[in-house]
Each structure stands twice: as structure tokens, then as C-alpha cells.
């Protein structure tokens, strides 16, 4: 597909949508207009923070070689610590689903359980959404659930408000906020790296088998506001700062026996690197054990993968996204991570009449078949309210 045409269509769709995914994806789409076609894979040395993880002393290895083929769902901390957990565990027991991605550090920046670790309390703020994290881990083990800890990294409003020096500030000293009142912390700062890795290390100690990092990027539209904001930075590019964090996190966590995964926009497999927000699909993939592109059909606009309304063509849209993903990652050979996409189990009514359809059993199964037909056998289901379609065959 012509890349400029794709971008125009993407921008049109996203400008009519809402939410963080749409806003940040605008930045990814806009980057296409300024980026050169193709991607250069840089073999970084262990000390340069380039995020490749392929040097002689930093070769990636899978610490969970005996892990199951993961088929999972997203679980908020509210659900994990509340009454809904019983029904979600029953879903695990009654189907081929076998994994939960649970918020350990959420979209606001709260650690979602009461920790007593001084290193975490120095910068972190806790909420008792999960009152007894030990009991939760026991339940997951009893039900043979493969536990994945979701940690939202650089979108951290709580930390930004408490420590403005770790964030992006206006000339008057106030912290920058996006249109939803959310703030980010600075990916250049090692204090932020160490804090998030410390949260991940405690999650590993608690029994989580994988750490899934989300919002591993700068704020949306950052290149348009960077010059007017105060923040510490190095000589590195934004891409290398973000990739450097991923490399550092993997090297810290791999010896603990846990996998590292990263969520990334599904579009990232189909377009050049998003320099503005600092995300490079290939560089990040080089240093993770699992990559999870968010390939929700609702997030693609007219023209993508030759579909007039991608949300209404879940099979074709997922096939196109996975073909692009393979094409992007095949060149990195043995460094290619497990591809475990996020797929859609929600109805995107915000797209407006004629641009969406109700999602349920049929639409979820169509996405799973598309994954299987493109040699992808792992997946995660996203529903923000944790209400998943009934009667789905997850094989």
C-alpha cells in the first residue's frame, strides 16, 4: 500500500476517534511523513544503550523456555482484587485460555497492591486495589494460570506530579499534561528506569513469570513540544533512549527467570520508526522475549490491507497486520521474539455508524483463525472492562 495514502487514511480515522491509543497513534502516523522508508538495524555495544541486545555480552536468551503457548486476557487491578476474579478464573478453567495480564503498575502510575519495599515507596504510590497479592498469586497457581505483570512505564501521572524534576515542565515550572490531564515521566532519566525495573523485580519475586511493559515511549506529539519544555536529556536520540530502557530492563530481569515483553502499536509493523515518540519496532523487538503489537481491527482506517472498513473485516485485517509483522521482524533472525498480539474483544462504537460492528464470538474467532493462518499461535484479548465474549473457541 502506498505509505502516504495509508498515513492520510490513518490520520482521518484517528482524528475522529478518542482515547490514548488514538492520540499516540496520530504521532506514529505523522512520523511516516517525516521518516525515510525502511529501517536500519544498529548492532549496539553493551554500553551505548542502543537497545539491540545482540552484542556478544548481551545476547538475549529465553528464561521461560518451558512456558506454555500463551492465550490470555487483560485483567485490571480492580478485577484482580475484586469479585470479578472468580468468574475470570472460571473462564480459565472452562476454556483453552491459560494466562492473565494483570495491572501491577497501572495507567495512572499507582502500584496496585500494598508493598513494603523501601525502594518502591521512595518514588512509588500504592493503592490497595489488590489487598492480598500473595493470596492472588496462590489462586493463579491453583488454577494453573500463567501470570504476566503489566507495568505502565513512562505514562505516570502520579510520579510526575510528586517529582516534577522527573517529568517534562513548562517554563513556569508546572508539569506538562496532555488533553486528558495525564503526564509522562522522562525516558532519558535512569532514576525512572531503575524505579520501573524495581517494580518489575518485585513482581518477579511475587511469582509473575513475565513482565509486560506498556507505554514504553515519549508522549504523543512530543517532537512538536520538545523545544518548549524543560527536561534532562543526553546526546541519544529518543529512539535510543527508549530502546536503551528495554535493553537495560531485559538484562536486569532475565537472570531472575522472567520474560520481558513490550506492547507496541500494531501500525508500527507497517510503517517506519516513530522518531517523535521514540518507538522503533525492530530495535525494541531485538531486546524482548515477546512483542505484543496491538492489532485491533478498529484501530485501522479505510484503505489498510485493502479493506474499506477494517473493523468489519477482522480476519483480513489481522492477516495483513501479521504479514507486515513477519516482514518487519524476519530480517533479525534468531533475535526475532515471540509474536503475541493483542486482539479485539470489544465493540468500537465510537467509530460511528457504518464504521464498526458488534464484536462477539464470531469476530474473536475470526481473529484467532487469522493468527493461526499466519503462523501465530499466541494472543491476548483486550477488553477494558474485562467482559469477554461467551462461547469462544480459543483453539
From TrEMBL:
One Pfam entry name: DUF4015
Signal peptide: none
Annotated region (Disordered), positions in chain: 43-63
DUF4015 domain: residues covered: 72-388
InterPro entries found in the cross-reference section: DUF4015, GH
Name of this protein: DUF4015 domain-containing protein
Organism lineage string: Bacteria, Bacillati, Bacillota, Bacilli, Bacillales
